Amino acid sequence: MPETRKAVLTLEDGSVFVGRSFGYEKPCAGEVVFNTAMTGYPESLTDPSYEGQILVTTYPILGNYGVPADTDAPEGRVKDNFESERIHCEAIVCQDYSWNPSHWQSERSLSDWLKEEKIPGIYGVDTRRLTKLLREKGSMLGKITFEGGEDIEFHDPNKENLIDKVSTKEVIEYGDGDKTVVLVDCGTKLNIIRCLLKRGVKVVLVPWDYDFNKLEWDGLFISNGPGSPEFADATVEHIREAMKTGKPICGICMGNQLLSRAAGAKIYKLKYGHRSHNQPVLKVGTDKCFITSQNHGFAVDTSTLDSDWEPLFINMNDDTNEGIRHKTKPFFSAQFHPEASSGPKDTEFIFDDFVALLRK
Amino acid sequence: MANNIKKALLLGSGALKIGEAGEFDYSGSQALKAMKEEGIATILINPNIATVQTSEGFADKIYFLPVTPYFVRKVIEKERPDGILLAFGGQTALNCGVELYRDGTLEELGVKVLGTPVQAIIDTEDRELFVKKLDEIDVKTIKSEAVTSVEGAVYAADQLGYPVIVRAAYALGGLGSGFCDTREELVKLVEKALSFSPQVLIEKSLKGWKEVEYEVVRDSHDNCITVCNMENFDPLGIHTGESIVVAPSQTLSNEDYHMLRKLAIKIVRHIGIVGECNVQYAYDPASMDYRVIEVNARLSRSSALASKATGYPLAFVAAKLGLGYGLHELKNSVTKSTSAFFEPALDYIVCKIPRWDLAKFHGVHREIGSSMKSVGEVMAIGRTFEEVIQKGLRMIGQGMHGFVENKALRVDDLDKALKEPTDKRIFAIAQALRNGYTVERIHELTKIDRWFLNKLNNIEQTSRELEKYDSLKALPLELLQQAKCQGFSDFQVARALYGDRMAAESEKLTDEVRRYRKEAGIKPVVKQIDTLAGEFPALTNYLYLTYNGETDDVDYLGDHRSVVVLGSGAYRIGSSVEFDWCGVNALITVGKEGYRPVMINYNPETVSTDYDMCERLYFDELTFERVMDILELEAPHGVILSTGGQIPNNLAMRLAANDVNILGTQASDIDNAEDRNKFSSLCDRIGVDQPRWREVTSLEAIDQFVAEVGFPVLVRPSYVLSGAAMNVCSNEEELARFLKLAANVSKQHPVVVSEFIQEAKEIEMDAVAQNGEIKLYAISEHIEFAGVHSGDATIQFPAQKLYTETIRRIKKISGRIAEALHISGPFNIQFLAKNNDIKVIECNLRASRSFPFVSKVSKQNFIDAATKVMLGIPVEKPSKSAFDLDYVGIKASQFSFSRLQGADPVLGVDMSSTGEVGCLGEDTSEAILKAMLSVGYRIPSTSKKILISSGTARQKVEMLEPARKLHKKGYTICATGGTADFLNKNGVPAIRVFFPSEEGNPQILEMLHGKEIDLVINIPKDLTARELSNGYKVRRAAIDLNVPLITNARLAAAFIEAFCELSLDDIKIKDWSKY
Q1: CB contact under 8 A, B341 and A59
Q2: Nearest-angstrom CA–CA distance, B583 and B640
Q3: ipTM for the assembly
Q4: Contact B553 A128 (CB under 8 A)
Q5: How far apart are CA A114 and CA A55, in angstroms?
Q6: Catalytic residue selected from A51, A253, A274, A277
Q7: Phi/psi of residue A277, each to 5°?
Q8: Minimal Cβ distance to B254: which of A43, A276, A278
Q9: Which stretches of B23-173 are DSSP H helices?
Q10: Whole-structure pTM value
Q11: What is the pLDDT of residues B503-547, one digit of tens each?
Q12: What distance in Å separates residue A220's CA from the closest CA in chain B?
C-alpha cells in the first residue's frame, strides 16, 4: 500500500472524520450524502444528480473492480461505461479502499481515475458513524481538507441552479427511429438515452430551458437531475404547454418532480433523501412491488396534486411518493430510476410502457 | 391469505451429516415460529433429539421418527394435517416429500404442500428437466448428459471432452460427485455414483470460473427479491460448502451483479418458486459469460448463511409466503417498521470458512473438490476483507491465529499444495507469500481472483512490517492500528514482535500487547447489523466488533443485569447441535429469571445466533481477547461457560485471572478436573478408582508402564504429527509404529499412556449439582463395550442392564466428586464397569453432548436446572419417581463415511460420527430399531444376503445367537473363513465367502457390486493396522455402494435382535408427549 496523506472531512455541525487520501488532493466542499448501494461507483460518480455533493458509500470497501475504459459507443457521445462525460460529485468517502483492483474490464484504478478527474477520495472513515449522523441530523454541508494543505469554506450547492450547470448547452440528436422523443436534459444519465435508443426511437436531447414545443415530437421525456426542482420553472412551463397536446409524457426522478410541479404539486426536501439500490416501491392499487435504484433528496407532496392526477407508485418504507400519473391522459413518471445503472433493472418496463404509448 | 391451514406438518432433516447440518435446525425452528404466530398447530417429524426445534415450545407435537416416506405417511394418517412443509429439512425432507407426492400419498390424504409446488421442485432436481426448463427461457446451463450406465458415461465424456464433472442426481451436498481427468477415473466414480442415484450426469468442467450465488425470495403474487449474493473465494471446482465464501460479492461490477441478479429472478419466476430459493452460477472471469450450476428450491446451507449475513430471516419469511402472504404484507423483522419486500444493504463484509475434521479419519483423501467433506463452518463479520479472513481463520479453531503468524506449514511441494486444493490451502497461500511468491504466481496456480490474493498480501506485508520491531515501545502506533484493522489478534502482534520468546511466555506477552494498545486507545467498536446500512433506525441487537470504526452503535447501561452465555463455535466432530441446544436453553432460563441474556457465538448454522433468542447477540470470536473486549463493554452480572462445550470451558482460567465473574463451578475446580494430575490425586484422596495411567517423556518409560499393566494400552500424545490423536496399541510392534509415525515423545511433548480395559461397560452420568450436591442426574449405558468413543457409541437411557449395585456405586462416586470439586452447574462423568468394578475415565465440569438427550427422554430440562443453579437460585431435587421411566431412549450415531472418500469406516477411541438421533420406544428393541432406521440403516430384505465377518473368538460367540435368529427369520448368511466354520459347526448355515486378499469364490466385493448383500457386519479383531487393512476394502465398498455396515459385535447383535423381533408395522407411531 502506498504512502498516503491524512485528509479530514468536517461537517457543518463541527463533526470531524479523519481519513487518508486516495484521490486528488485539493480541498473541496459540498452537501454530504450517503448511498447504501454495494456496487456501481463508476456509474454513481458520473451521475450528474450528484453534482455538488460529497458522496459517502456505506458499503465499506471501494474500488474493488477498478474503472472501465473510457470508450465511445457507436451512438456518438453515449459512452458505454459511464453515465456522463465526467465525475460530478465533489468527492467520495469510504471506509476501506482496494489499491489493487481486479476485473477484466478494469483499465485503471479508482485512485488513478479520481486523480485524472481532480476529485478527492478519502478512506479510513467510519462511514457508519457518518451515515447515522446524516440520518439523524439530515444531510449536512461538509468539506474535505488535507494535512498541510489549505482550508476552504462550506458551500451549499442547493442554492445554485445545478440543473443549468450540468444540462447540455446544445440540441443533440441520437438514433433514427420511427418515433421522436424529446429528452429534456436536466442532467440526464446516459442510460436513459441508451434505454430509449434500444427501443428503436429517435432521441432529441435538449437543454433544460429549451422550448421544445416548437419542435416536432411524438413523446416527451424529462430526465433526472441534481439539486432543487425549484430552479427549473422554465421547464415546468414548457411541460404545461406540452400537456395540452395530449402526447405521451414521462419523467424520471427530477422529471417526476417537474411533471408534478406542472400538475400543480408542491415539492419538499427530504431529511436525508433516498440513495440506494434497494428501495421498495408499490404500484398503487396492486400487489406489485419493485426493488428500485434511487438517488434523490426531494419528494413530491401528492396531496397537492391537481385532481385529475394520482399517485402511481409509493415507497414502501416511508410512504413517500415514487411516481404519479394523469387519470386520463398518457402522462406518468417515476421518482426512482428505471434505467438503473447502477442498481437493479426490475423497472425497465417503464420505457416499454412509454414507447408503447408512442406507437399506440 | 389464500389458504386456510389449521394444522401443518414439518419435516426435519434428521441427524447431522456432512452436507446437512445445523442449518436445518435453524430454518425449521424459524418455520415453526412463523406457523405458531399464525395460530397453526404444528407437527414435527425429526429424530434428531439434540436440536432446538425438537424442544418444548417450538412444535405442538414432536415425533422422534425417521424422515422416510413410510413413517411420514404413518404420521399423516394419524394426525391428518392440512399442510406439509418440505423446504425446511434439507435434501432429506425434500426427497421424502417428492416421493410422497409421486406415490399419491399427499393427494390421497388431502395434504397441501405449502410453498414451492412439488412439480417445481422436481423441475430443479431432475437435471434433464432442469436444463429443459431453463432452455425455455434461454438461460444457459452446464450442458450435461444424463446417463444410467457406466458405458453411457464413457460415451458422453468422449463427446464432451475431458476434464468432465460427474454429478449424482437427487443427492445431497454433491454426494458421489467429482472431477475426472481420464476415462479410468470416470469409470470408478460413475460406478459409485450409480449406487446412490439411478441417474448420473456428465458435464464439461468449467474449472477456474468464478462461483457466485443469489438467494432469491418470491411470493405468490410474483413479487421477487434477491436477499443476498455471495462469491466464492475458491473458484469453480470446489463445492460451495467446501469453499471460503464472502458476502456480498467483491469482484463483480455493477453490470455483473445486476445481470446475474436479473437472471436469477427470471429463473425463479419461470420455475414458479414460492418461498426461498438459491441460484448458483459459474461466471467467466474474463467476460460476462455464465452458466447456471444449479437451483435449490428449498432452504439450504447458503440460505442459512445469507440469513445470518444480512439479518433477513429467510426461513421465517419463506414459511409465511407458503401460507399465501405477499412479501409486501410482511415487515422487516429487524427494523419492525420497514417492509419485508426489500433487499438488504450491507455495510460490512462477511466471510464463511468451512471447518474440516479430516485428521479424525484414517485414510481419507485430503483434497477438497466437488463433493463436501467439511463438518461445520464459521462466519466472520468485519469492515475489511483482511479483518474478516483473519477472524474467520481463528474461529475455525484449528490452532491457527489468523492468516499469518502461525506455525510454519510443513509442505513438501508448495506449488502442488496451491494447485491441488486441500483443507490447508489457505495456509499454503500464506506460506507462499512468506516464501516470496508473487500474487500473480499464486493466481496462476490457484485461479483465485487477484483481488482476494492482494488483500491477503496486505496482511503478509503488515506482518513483515511488524516483524521489523522487537518491542511495543518501538512499534509505531499507526502500524499497530493498521494491524488491528486488518484483523491481527494481540497474539499475532506479540508473535511478530517477540518471535521465539512466545514459546515460553505467550500469555504474558499477549497480555502486554493488550494492555499497551488499550492505553493507546486502540480498541474495537461495536457495530449493528441492521439490514439497511444505517439508512433507517433499527432496534437491532445483532452485533459484531470491528477495528474499522470510531464509535459504538449501542449504549451500555453498566447495571450488571446481563448474563453472557458463551456459545460453542464451529460444529466439528465431537461438538455440534447439542451444545447449541444447551446454549439456547441457558439463554431462555437467564431471560426468565430476570436477567438480560447475551450470546457470543459465530456459527451461522445455529439457533443460538438467531438474534431473537437473546437480548444481545455478539456474532464474534470466542477467543480470550474478544470475549474480554465484550465483557469489558458489557460489564455483566456474570458469564456462563459450561453450556458451550470445550471452547468456553478452556477460557475459564484466563477469565478468572482477569476477575471475570464465572457463574457456577469455579475456574480452579474446572482446572482440578481438566488437569490429569490434579484430578488423579483428587480421585486418590476421595477413594475413587481410575484406570492406571502415566504421563511419560521417553520410550523406556512407556515400556516400563506397559510391563506393569499389560497390553492393550491407550496412547494419547500431547503433540500429534499426523493422523488421529489417540490410539489403542495391542502389542509392542503396534506401539512402536504409532509412536514413531504419529507422535513425538520428549520432555516438551509428553505422552499419556493408560491401561485399556477390554470388555468393560461404559456408563455415563449426566448431572447437575448445586454447591457440591447432586440435584438432578441421568445414568445411561453404552450398547458397545468401552473402546468406542462415547460420541460414536449407541447409548441407552435409562440404563437397562446394569446391576443395582453398579448404579448405587456410580451415584455415590459421582456425589463424592461433585462435593470435592464444589460443582455448581452441569457436569458429566464417564465410568467403566466390569464385574462391579467401577473406574472413572473422564470428568467434565460442563454440559456434555448427551444433555439434550437425557433431558428430553426424562422430560427434565437439565440446562434449565443448571442455569438456575448458576444464577444462585435454589433448585429442588425431583421426586424419586421422576427417575423411573417406563420407556427407553436410544441415542444412535450418524456417520458420514460415504462423503469421506477413502476413510476407513471403523470405530475407535477417537470420535468420527457427525451427528446423532434419539428415539423412544417401549423397550430397547423398538427404540433401537427406530434409531438405527433414523441414521440410515434399513431392515435387510430376506431376498438378499447378510455378510458376517467377525474377529476374535469371543466376538464370534457373541454373534452366534444373532446369527441363529437371522437364520430362523429366513435370512441367508454368508461369512468369511473362520466365522463361516464357526457358524456352520454350531448349527447356523453360512455360505463361505472370500476377502479380496483371498483366492476363491464367491468374492465379497463382487457380491457387493452385484447388490446381493443387504447388510455387512465386519468386526475387526483389534485396531492394529494389519487387521484393519484386511477388512478395509470390504467396509469401504459397503459404504461406497450404500450397503449398511456395522463394525461392532454388540451393536450388530442389538440391531439384529430388534429387527428379528419387530417388523416395521410393530413400531408405534407415538409423539413425544405420549411417553
Answers
A1: no
A2: 9
A3: 0.97
A4: yes
A5: 13
A6: A253
A7: -105, 5
A8: A43
A9: 23-37, 69-79, 90-102, 105-108, 118-125, 127-135, 150-160
A10: 0.95
A11: 889 999 999 999 999 999 999 999 999 999 999 888 889 999 999
A12: 28
